C-alpha cells in the first residue's frame, strides 16, 4: 500500500480538511503518479456537499489531474517513469460493453468508475481523487500531456476542456457555423476558446454585460446579453449550435429561440435542481433539438489534449494552495474566479 496525503470532507456540512489514507500499490497494468496540480470543478463542490445525494464519505475530490509518473507496472507499455500525464473524470470502466468498445467509456453500460466518489469494479471501496499527493490508475485511463509549459493551466482541460470539446466535435462545429456559448465560467470560457479554434463564429450569451470585454479577449466575436430583450430578439433564429454551460436551473425557451431550423442546443452544465421544462413548440416548429453531453471518452480526451497543445490552448486559472480550498468553494459560488481554480499540490507539504 502507498501512504497518501490529501484533503477530504467527512460530511456534507463540514469543510475539507487534511486526510491521510492509503492507495493500492501499482499492479501489473497500473501507473503511479505524483500529482503536481489539480483543478477545482463545480462537481467537486456538488459532491462534497452531497447536493446530488450520492456522496460516499470521506470524500477526496479532484478529477482534473496533472502529474509525473513515478512508477509503472510490469505490463505498462505506453508510459514510463518521468512522463507528464493527466487523469480526468474516470479511472475505469467495464471495457466490455458496446459503449466501451466504441471508445465512449463515459457512457459505459455498467457505469464508469469515477476518479472520486466511485465504487471500484469488484469492490465496494470509495475512490479518492486528486486533492492528494499521488494516485494509482490503470494505464488505459492515463493521458499523455504534450504541453511543454504552463502545466497548472492544463489541469482543467481534463474536465472543463473535454466537457466542452466533446459536444463541439460530435455536432461537427467548424467554419461557416455560428455557435453560441451560454455562460462564461469554467466551462464556458473553454467553450469559447475551443469553438473559435475550430473555426466557428462564436457568440457568447451571458446575463452579465461586464463580461463582454473578457469574452472578446477569449475569442468570441459577438456578445448577447440575455436579459436584454432587444438583443435576444435581434439574434432569434441565427445560431447553428448552442453549447449551454450554465450549472444553475434556468429557462431554456429564450435560448432555444436563437437556433435556426435543425439547430441543436446541448446542455453540459449539471444543476443541483432541474431546469424548468421547455415549451414543446420551441422544438417542433423549427425541428430544433435539445441534447446533453457527458465529458468524453479516453481517446477523445487525448485528441482534445493534442488539439489544445497544437493550438496553444489552456485554461485561464488562479492558483491556490490546498489550505485555501474551502474559501475557494465560497468564491466559486459567487462567481469570483476567472475562470478556474487550480491547486498547487506541493502545498500539501505545509500541513
TrEMBL record:
<dbReference type="InterPro" id="IPR002328">
    <property type="entry name" value="ADH_Zn_CS"/>
</dbReference>
<protein>
    <submittedName>
        <fullName>Uncharacterized zinc-type alcohol dehydrogenase-like protein</fullName>
    </submittedName>
</protein>
<dbReference type="InterPro" id="IPR013149">
    <property type="entry name" value="ADH-like_C"/>
</dbReference>
<comment type="similarity">
    <text>Belongs to the zinc-containing alcohol dehydrogenase family.</text>
</comment>
<dbReference type="InterPro" id="IPR020843">
    <property type="entry name" value="ER"/>
</dbReference>
<dbReference type="Pfam" id="PF08240">
    <property type="entry name" value="ADH_N"/>
</dbReference>
<dbReference type="InterPro" id="IPR047109">
    <property type="entry name" value="CAD-like"/>
</dbReference>
<dbReference type="GO" id="GO:0008106">
    <property type="term" value="F:alcohol dehydrogenase (NADP+) activity"/>
</dbReference>
<keyword id="KW-0479">Metal-binding</keyword>
<feature type="domain" description="Enoyl reductase (ER)">
    <location>
        <begin position="12"/>
        <end position="343"/>
    </location>
</feature>
<dbReference type="InterPro" id="IPR029752">
    <property type="entry name" value="D-isomer_DH_CS1"/>
</dbReference>
<keyword id="KW-0862">Zinc</keyword>
<dbReference type="Pfam" id="PF00107">
    <property type="entry name" value="ADH_zinc_N"/>
</dbReference>
<dbReference type="InterPro" id="IPR036291">
    <property type="entry name" value="NAD(P)-bd_dom_sf"/>
</dbReference>
<keyword id="KW-0560">Oxidoreductase</keyword>
<dbReference type="GO" id="GO:0008270">
    <property type="term" value="F:zinc ion binding"/>
</dbReference>
<dbReference type="InterPro" id="IPR013154">
    <property type="entry name" value="ADH-like_N"/>
</dbReference>
<dbReference type="InterPro" id="IPR011032">
    <property type="entry name" value="GroES-like_sf"/>
</dbReference>
Amino acid at each position: 500500500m502507498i501512504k497518501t496525503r490529501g484533503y477530504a470532507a467527512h460530511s456534507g456540512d463540514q469543510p475539507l480538511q487534511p486526510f491521510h489514507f492509503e492507495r493500492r500499490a501499482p499492479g501489473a497494468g497500473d501507473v503511479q503518479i505524483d500529482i503536481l496540480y489539480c483543478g477545482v470543478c463545480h462537481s467537486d463542490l456538488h459532491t462534497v456537499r452531497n447536493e446530488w445525494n450520492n456522496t460516499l464519505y470521506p470524500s477526496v475530490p479532484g478529477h482534473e489531474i496533472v502529474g509525473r509518473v513515478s512508477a509503472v507496472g510490469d505490463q505498462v507499455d505506453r508510459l514510463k517513469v518521468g512522463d507528464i500525464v493527466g487523469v480526468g473524470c474516470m479511472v475505469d470502466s467495464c471495457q466490455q460493453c458496446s459503449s466501451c468498445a466504441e471508445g465512449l467509456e463515459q457512457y459505459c453500460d455498467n457505469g464508469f468508475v469515477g476518479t472520486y466518489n466511485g465504487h471500484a469494479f469488484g469492490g465496494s471501496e470509495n475512490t479518492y481523487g486528486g486533492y492528494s499527493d499521488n494516485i494509482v490508475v490503470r494505464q488505459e485511463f492515463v493521458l499523455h500531456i504534450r504541453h511543454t509549459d504552463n502545466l497548472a493551466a492544463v489541469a482543467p482541460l481534463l474536465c472543463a476542456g473535454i466537457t466542452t470539446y466533446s459536444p463541439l466535435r460530435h455536432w461537427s462545429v467548424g467554419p461557416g457555423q455560428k455557435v453560441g456559448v451560454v455562460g462564461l465560467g469554467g466551462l464556458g470560457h473553454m467553450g469559447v476558446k475551443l469553438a473559435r479554434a475550430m473555426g466557428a463564429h462564436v457568440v457568447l450569451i451571458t446575463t452579465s454585460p461586464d463580461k463582454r470585454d473578457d469574452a472578446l479577449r477569449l475569442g468570441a466575436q459577438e456578445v448577447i446579453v440575455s436579459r436584454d430583450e432587444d438583443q435576444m430578439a435581434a439574434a432569434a433564429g441565427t445560431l447553428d449550435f448552442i453549447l449551454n454551460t450554465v450549472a444553475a436551473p434556468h429557462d431554456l425557451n429564450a435560448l432555444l429561440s436563437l437556433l435556426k431550423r435543425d439547430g441543436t442546443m446541448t446542455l453540459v452544465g449539471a444543476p443541483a435542481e432541474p431546469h424548468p421544462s421547455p415549451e414543446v413548440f420551441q422544438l417542433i416548429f423549427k425541428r430544433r433539438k435539445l441534447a446533453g453531453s457527458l465529458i468524453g471518452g479516453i481517446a477523445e480526451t487525448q485528441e482534445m489534449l493534442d488539439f489544445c497543445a497544437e493550438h496553444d490552448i489552456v485554461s485561464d486559472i488562479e492558483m491556490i494552495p490546498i489550505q485555501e480550498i474551502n474559501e475557494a468553494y465560497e468564491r466559486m459560488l459567487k462567481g469570483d474566479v476567472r475562470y478556474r481554480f487550480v491547486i498547487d499540490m506541493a502545498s500539501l507539504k505545509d500541513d
